Amino acid sequence: MKFFSEEDYRKTQISGMLAFPLSREGWDEYLEFMRGIEVDYEEQAKASLERNRESLLALLPSSLHPYIHNGTINRPYTPPDLAQLIADWNQELLDRNREQGRKWREAYESIKDRLPSGAVELSIEAEDLRLESV
Questions:
Q1: Global pTM exceeds 0.90
Q2: Which of 87, 101, 102, 125 is the one with CA 20 to 30 A from 34?
Q3: If 0-12 CB within 10 Å is exposed, 13-18 middle and 19+ buried, where does residue 27 land?
Q4: How many whole angstroms separate alpha carbon 28 and alpha carbon 13?
Q5: What is the pLDDT of residues 56-69, one digit of tens each?
Q6: How many other CB atoms are found less than 10 A from the CB of residue 124?
Q7: Does 117 have pLDDT greater than 70?
Q8: Which ranges in the chain belong to alpha helices (H)?
Q9: Residue closest to 17 by CA, chosen among 73, 80, 62
């Protein structure tokens, strides 16, 4: 695909695994919530890491590899230095996805008048769905 690749999609999926609280208070609240719904976060995090280890190593920068290998990348009370590395990576991914989306919209707008009406309607419906999910 010209604007988004399979790797982009895989990185976006992995970023969901790396979305967690940045403060101790946030972690306390999150862990309490998980206990409230009877989910063992530690067990879930360990299983998720094992399931996604190969993808994490392939898609994340080498600066995060030690945390993948030692199993601390998605553990509670993430050290500030690790949290910052992950936050930076997530922000770069978000910025890149936004830029790719902007390029896609520009390309679409430049050819919209030459597309069949059904294609234009699909694009409008997709945009409406995207806006509803935000």
A1: no
A2: 87
A3: middle
A4: 25
A5: 999 999 999 999 99
A6: 10
A7: yes
A8: 6-17, 24-36, 41-59, 65-69, 80-111, 117-133
A9: 73
